[in-house]
Amino acid sequence: MKYTVSLLAAAALLPAVAIADLLTLTGPASAQDTAIFDDAPDSNGGAGTSVFSGRIRNGSGLRRALFQFDLSAIDSGATITSATLRLEIDRVPQTGSVNSDFGLHPITASWVPGTGASTGGGGTVENGSTSWNSRVHNSLAWTTGGGDFATTASATTNFGGSIGPVVFIGAGMVADLQDWIDNPGANNGWILISTAEGTNGTARSIASAEAASGRPVLEIEFTPQAGIPGWSDY
Phi then psi for 44, rounded to 5 degrees? Predict the structure, then answer.
């Protein structure tokens, strides 16, 4: 796996203080994502260069995007101190666009990103892949169609009417990541949901982990467990 790592604190200045490290995760080596569609409930969009969330402008379809990051480079005893997720809106409705807040909700069941071809109108049916109906198509259904997730968002931010970056940050994300470090089997990532899913025109296209540019980026600041070498020790 490829990781970009930078040191945030100087040991020479604070020799008695644990050094914080910053881990940056992006691209298919360390991230996976997919799109699911309520009007194509058995289809999967895991191989596309974009994922989608919100309701399309004619009201006929709802989309949700799922994201998961590989946290195995962080020691299980580490303490997460901050987290930032950066996404890139790469397309908005040409007409009828409606701004809305989007929330990141922890997913509570495992899923498979899949290899379906993804477009704004839906993906392709792929056995063994995640869809609106199933976390593993033809094998395991979601408890509720559209995904199993915590009702409270860990972070929210507004998606406007322009192409460009959006940033999620907050204590809820830190709590999620700490739980996933302490309990790796609980790391099912986040699902991205508009707070105005009933409103037409809230749908947004977001660059995926497979995109040539604008890929999702998760930055995690953490303090390694005492006695465990951090990135600064190499």
Answer: -130, 145
